[in-house]
Amino acid sequence: ITKRTARLVAEWQCVGFCHGVLNTDNMSIVGLTIDYGPFGFMDRYDPEHICNGSDNTGRYAYNKQPEICKWNLGKLAEALVPELPLEISELILEEEYDAEFEKHYLQKMRKKLGLIQLELEEDSKLVSELLETMHLTGGDFTNIFYLLSSFSVDSDPSKLEDFLEKLTSQCASVEELKVAFKPQMDPRQLSMMLMLAQSNPQLFALIGTKANINKELERIEQFSKLQQLTAADLLSRNKRHWKEWLEKYRVRLQKEIESVSDADAWNTDRVKVMNSNNPKYILRNYIAQNAIEAAENGDFSEVRNVLKLLENPFQEAEGFREVKEDAEEEGATATAAACAQETRSRLPYCSKPPLWASELCVT
Predict the structure, then answer these.
(1) Which interval of the chain is the signal sequence (predicted)?
(2) Is the same domain home to 47 and 84?
């Protein structure tokens, strides 16, 4: 059960899936979870991403999922006493969980990066530096991984520039960053909380935490910096960050090439493995919202479109067209909804979210 659970959450982390309500009763001993409520996929990479709007403390944030699943296993171990003594189960948990999670996570990340020949110690660092670069640039988690399969290993400057353009187009704009880092507390409330933390720590502990206050102060600082940042400055900064990481990635891919006899066959295999481990399509909140709004107006074609698309999330579906409705009555009811939704629905299903999507809240 420990190993199954570790592998499950490792798979989640590799595709940016967030469960939202990882209570003990929502986990199964067969290595699955149940009660999918406010789940979601992470768009812009943020290790502290919270998909459930009612999770005020971030208990089930993206980066907390592995440790929460381990904590839940500890509760299962307690429930199995006296049939299984804690000294046995806790030892299994300590020895097996972290090791299995790290192993499975790194195996999956190697496939996502097309590292199919060698397993090197440095791979873990390459992955963490990629995520750090994504975080710094506000990169779209799904789309950047998907793009990497088209990265050219040769060092042609024009190819690199073209690729950097594609990568940076998947990074957050100044407007998106301003929304993300917009302060959430009224300045007077924050001032009061800071005074309370100094003068009455016991009372402060009942209504707030230092972590939340620090996060708000960081948000204010970031938001202030963003006021001075131009789109050109941001683009230049993002290109610099990505160029640095891509150089390390190229060096690592060269080691793969040196270990094979046929570089072209290796590259074909690399792209195939990457495209079967990096989904092109995920159920983004804005896609779900468009489908919900259309359905509420009597048009279920968008629901069917999205369902059909997500049955094959890894396949290229550029030629994908709407599922045509057989029922004439649905077509008539749908006209007004289709007009209202036209501008929203124009985005390809693989697009990073539009700015209006930042207002969506799932609870």
Answers:
(1) none
(2) yes
